[in-house]
Design goal:
This protein is of the alpha/beta class. 51% of the residues lie in helices and 20% in strands. It binds bis[(2S)-2,3-dihydroxypropyl] hydrogen phosphate.
């Protein structure tokens, strides 16, 4: 009789604990602040707002992601620090900022590496090389939800016509404060001048800098064309953002909500890649209608000038550049 009572008591305890966790999951609510520097007119902003809305709907309001565009709250390195410190915060930044914690991410988005959006997206989604990088980021407290919110190749935007590295001598170009960007634009021959995006257009207008580097989508979305008319098609970086959350915060989110969050940020990036591929031609035409001129450059000269960057990244895994090129070669061959 005692055995039976003990068994019934144990089953009741288990049932209660299950129902408690079920109630806990149903009562679970989390508000996250999502921060980036893009303007309301830019696609990245629209995609972040869209994904946040879908997640809120699919979790019946349990996961409330408040989006803060245009650098309203912490961005760039400061935003990444919020993530690493375990704040209820999502940072949307270039993967080179993850590189401050896992240096190989600087090589992942290094200069003159990619020819298409798709090959980068395939690389970051389907290779063990990048999967291992993501694990290394988690060991540093950074859960990566996406890496391919692509917003176009970044080129040099000035009034002076630029075709080769020598043309950039003495030319001050605004870059984001990422050391990878600063070192790369200096290697290209320019004088890199780091500024947050919010100060960039006024600095260009006032002649504090001679120009900047950015994509056609940035050019159109933030009206760079009103202050600079020449784009030298260096395509030195693929403009892309990753989406990062603290592992401490992530691990406390119930699994059913983790899946929705991960799936929707993942799907949003794929939608954005397709959207940007489809829009690029029209964006170039619209910029040309505003008087913007595009010119080809000596790509080999810029590639040679920036090759040393991969060897100079402190703490980078030896031969990671060769490993990236090896994966890209396989991806390109598979597409043929
Ligand atoms: O960290 C995210 C990107 O690197 C931001 O690049 P940035 O600071 O040149 O801004 C791009 C613009 O499109 C923002 O409006």
């Amino acid at each position: 009789m005692n055995m039976k009572r003990t068994l019934i008591a144990a089953m009741a305890t288990v049932a209660l604990s299950f129902s408690a966790s079920a109630i806990a999951a149903d009562d679970y609510k989390l508000t996250l602040k999502l921060s980036h520097v893009f303007s309301p007119a830019e696609d990245l902003t629209k995609f972040m707002d869209e994904v946040a809305g879908i997640i809120k709907k699919k979790t019946d309001g349990a996961i409330n992601i408040q989006t803060f565009p245009q650098g309203q709250i912490a961005t760039y390195k400061d935003g990444m620090e919020q993530v690493v410190r375990g704040a209820n915060f999502i940072s949307v930044e270039d993967p080179s900022y993850v590189g401050d914690y896992v240096p190989d991410f600087k090589a992942l988005v290094g200069p003159m590496l990619y020819d298409t959006y798709d090959e980068y997206s395939t690389l970051v989604r389907n290779t063990k090389l990048v999967a291992d990088m993501k694990k290394a980021a988690e060991a540093k407290g950074i859960k990566i939800l996406a890496l391919d919110y692509v917003f176009g190749f970044r080129s040099v935007i000035t009034n002076k016509v630029i075709t080769k590295p020598e043309d950039l001598k003495g030319v001050k170009l605004r870059t984001p404060g990422s050391k990878l960007f600063i070192d790369t634009l200096n290697a290209m021959g320019a004088t890199a001048t780091p500024l947050p995006w919010g100060e960039t257009l006024s600095a260009v207008s006032q002649g504090v800098v001679d120009g900047l580097e950015g994509s056609e989508f940035t050019n159109l979305g933030t009206k760079v064309y009103e202050v600079r008319k020449n784009v030298a098609l260096t395509r030195h970086f693929l403009g892309t953002c990753g989406v990062y959350i603290s592992t401490q915060v992530w691990d406390k989110i119930p699994a059913k909500y983790q899946k929705i969050i991960a799936d929707e940020f993942d799907a949003g990036a794929l939608r954005m890649v397709e959207t940007m591929k489809g829009k690029h031609g029209a964006v170039v035409k619209e910029l040309e209608s505003y008087g913007v001129k595009f010119n080809e450059v000596d790509k080999k000269a810029f590639k040679d000038a920036t090759a040393r960057i991969y060897k100079e990244i402190p703490g980078v895994t030896p031969n990671v550049y060769d490993a990236l090129v090896g994966e890209l070669t396989k991806i390109r061959a598979a597409k043929k």
